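[Automated response] Your request has been received and processed.

Submitted sequence:
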Amino acid sequence: MRALRLLTAIAALAALALAPARAADETPHPPHQHWHSDGVFGTIDLASAQRGFHVYNSVCANCHGMKLMAYRNLTDLGLTEEQVKAIAASITVPLGLNDAGEPFEGPATPASRFRAPYPNDKVARVVNNGALPPDLSVIVRAREGGADYIYALLTGFADPPADMRMGAGMNYNKYFPGHQIAMRPPLVDDQVEFADGTKATIPQMARDVTEFLTWASAPEVTERKRMGIRVVLFLALMTVLTYLVKRQIWSSIH
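Generated structure:
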């Protein structure tokens, strides 16, 4: 009995000793944000998503690619064909091999895929402290927490706790597992200028680029929801008409 009590006491002390360490390792759950696309009737906020593309193109594209997206897809975001052509023409992409068999580059076209920031994964790792920046084409669907996690990650950079030892080249982030991330804080206030006059604060840019990435992860979601609403309204109308016809037919029998 005495030995059992001794073992119990030792276990309790060990649990107390480990509690702070476990608490430090726990990653807070990203707080839920209200998104325009939430719910059955939710749709993408196109104005926000267009600003988000500007943030991606000006900031995120320096490290992250979107290999599943072509510039012509931006017309589905509400941009005109002229705007898309201008955006594509301002970006240099590989165009294959010239007559001498050497690779060459030139202006992108609307049919071009989004420009890759690095020629290959090895170069990307060398530039980014050994970490490989993920492709952002479907990042919102690929990460647990979706849009909430992306927003929290972009706004979760802070100074590390005084008792936390950071790895070389690592940055503290409240919402990244382990709290150490190779990516430096990508956003700073007034980093871009929005055409509609919206103030480019860190939270605003994080929200807008998350809205854009939400659209990119499922660009058909808005049309699918609209079609679903049309189908529901059609079925509701047919139900009412069927009921009225039934009453009309059976009223003479009664």
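Summary generated for your ticket: The two ends are 86 Å apart (CA to CA). The chain has eight helices and four strands.
If you did not submit this request, please reply to this message.
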